[in-house]
């Protein structure tokens, strides 16, 4: 999955914020990989079954959305 961000700074902050989750996932049923490519965030998720895949994707997308919303709130108080 490729996600575009409003700025490279926002992208870097999201990468840093999610680094602990990628390095030590909350479950062994799925693994995620995050990288920056062409100014976009690339999210790759591997899972043994569709339930784990859906849960991991939902979790990462919620975390990414939460970080972006906090950053927007800080920019526009």
What does the average pLDDT come to?
A: 92
The name CATH uses for the topology is TATA-Binding Protein
* Number of beta-strand segments: 3
Order of helices and strands: EHEEH
Largest sheet: 3 strands, antiparallel
Summarize the amount of helix as a percent range: 40-55%
Domain count, please report it: 1
User: In the CATH hierarchy, what is the architecture at level 2?
Assistant: 2-Layer Sandwich
Strand content: 15-25%
Describe the model.
With 77 residues, the protein is α+β, with helices and mostly antiparallel strands. The protein has a single domain (2-75), classed as Alpha-D-phosphohexomutase, C-terminal domain (TATA-Binding Protein, 2-Layer Sandwich), CATH 3.30.310. 55% of the residues lie in helices and 25% in strands. It contains two helices and three strands; from the N terminus they run βαββα. It has helices at residues 8-23, 50-75, and strands at 2-4, 30-37, 40-47. The chain has a three-stranded antiparallel beta sheet. A hairpin with a 2-residue loop joins strand 2 and strand 3 (40-47). The longest helix is centred in the C-terminal third of the chain and has 26 residues, at 50-75. The chain is globular.
